[in-house]
Write a structure and sequence with these properties.
Aspartate Aminotransferase, domain 1, 4-stranded antiparallel sheet, 2 domains, globular, 17 strands
Length: about 425
């Protein structure tokens, strides 16, 4: 079966909403996606029928235990994690990274080096800068080429030394859309004995994610970016997690993963995570048969999920091509990202641009008046915006389609933009 976008859209009640009779077009997805009906139902069911703390002998607590166990298994399948014990839940990627940095810092000594990226969201930059400041570490920066919007990994070879202890990089840029070769980055880091931390918040909604193929030591993502609730997820390699000292209160469990989950978690969000993963599995089971052969090393839901992501990535490439072609045809628009049709495998459909005479905020406001939702600004990609020279000038307009968006919506957006810039 081919990809059926209308069948997909039928799962998302928000996509049918209108304001004053005008339907909404959600292109704000890099900041947070809409959720399928099943996610909302699973969260409601948890709150109404499984609302208890964990570890008790009574029925609601036993049911809550199962909710969390199911969510760990779902995320282990989505990320191809070797063990459910390596899946940690928290408020969001930013909070979890700040928390984990304290534990990782206990392994480091003054004079050690860490490598950070100028392509990343600040959630994978500033927690580590603060750690380096507090521990007297040296920060080395991996820059990207502002003309190609990609890394030259030869530069990484120059940055890595026998004093490098940690390399942090994103799976995909939340501003330019560039997909990074994280597997090669992890291989290079591993060769000098360094740990790796991957921010997959922007890649996980678009790209099949296999932590074992990537070869990283930590990978973080947020479910609300892949059609789930506001929930952060961290995968960590067991042998490293067990070396870390968790920052926790005394009565909390000492074993992983619980020792890294500070306080009572959002069990209803865990239920929503499972439902979001099962939504992807539905796509895989009903539409992605042609993609299964690439994931024969996986079994069951894991294979189905990764096949689904490959199918969705191919559809999103067609969306990205239509969007990029249309933007480049509008006078005054400069796209900040990969635009070549033969290079779309190296980007997600998140596209940012500037205009020669209109500010990003003015364009975003004008689109909002037409009920087309986009973001403007630097979108927390501070180092990216500074590298591109737009940090002090209002950033860019960010358009972020996902697999529930249609070619027709892209055409409506482009028509609206042409009208806005011509007035």
């Amino acid at each position: 079966m081919q990809y059926d976008v209308e069948s997909v859209r039928s799962h998302f009640p928000a996509l049918a909403m209108t304001d004053a009779g005008v339907r909404r077009i959600y292109l704000d997805n890099p900041a947070g996606t809409q959720v399928p009906q099943g996610v909302a139902e699973a969260m409601s069911d948890c709150l109404l029928h499984r609302n208890a703390n964990l570890g008790g002998n009574f029925a609601s607590s036993v049911a809550a235990d199962q909710v969390v166990a199911d969510a760990r298994l779902a995320m282990a399948d989505l990320l191809n994690a070797p063990s459910v014990d390596e899946i940690i839940f928290g408020q969001n990627m930013t909070t979890m990274t700040l928390h984990l940095s304290r534990s990782i810092g206990r392994l480091l000594r003054p004079g050690d080096e860490i490598v950070l990226s100028r392509m990343d969201h600040d959630a994978n930059v500033w927690p580590w800068v603060l750690m380096a400041r507090d521990l007297e570490l040296e920060v080395r920066w991996l820059s990207f080429d502002p003309s190609t919007f990609e890394f030259d990994l030869g530069d990484l070879d120059e940055l890595l030394t026998d004093r490098t202890r940690l390399v942090c990089v994103g799976g995909a840029s939340n501003l330019t859309g560039t997909i990074n070769d994280v597997a090669t980055i992890c291989e290079k880091a591993r060769a000098v004995g360094a740990m790796t931390f991957i921010d997959a918040v922007q890649s996980a909604p678009h790209v099949a994610t296999d932590v074992q193929q990537i070869g990283c030591d930590f990978l973080a993502c947020s479910a609300y970016k892949f059609f789930g609730p506001h929930q952060g997820i961290l995968w960590g390699r067991r042998e490293i997690l067990e070396k870390l000292e968790p920052y926790k209160v005394r009565p909390a469990y000492d074993k992983i993963p619980w020792c890294f989950e500070t306080g009572t978690q959002s069990h209803e969000s865990c239920a929503g995570v499972t439902a979001a993963v099962d939504y992807f599995a539905w796509i895989g089971e009903t539409m992605a048969a042609d993609y299964m052969a690439d994931w024969t090393h996986l079994e069951g839901r894991g294979q189905v999920l990764h096949a689904a992501m490959d199918l969705l990535f191919d559809y999103e490439k067609s969306i990205a091509e239509r969007l990029l072609t249309g933007l480049e045809a509008i006078d005054g628009v400069t796209v900040m990202g990969i635009t070549s049709a033969d290079a779309l495998d190296r980007r997600v459909p998140t596209v940012s641009f500037t205009h020669a005479s209109l500010t990003p905020d003015a364009i975003a406001k004008s689109l909002a008046e037409k009920n087309i939702f986009v973001w403007s600004g630097h979108n927390y990609a501070v180092e990216v915006a500074k590298t591109l020279g737009i940090y002090e000038t209002g950033g860019g307009v960010r358009i972020g389609p996902v697999h529930y968006n249609t070619h027709g919506e892209i055409d409506e957006l482009l028509g609206a933009l042409r009208s806005i810039v011509s007035n």
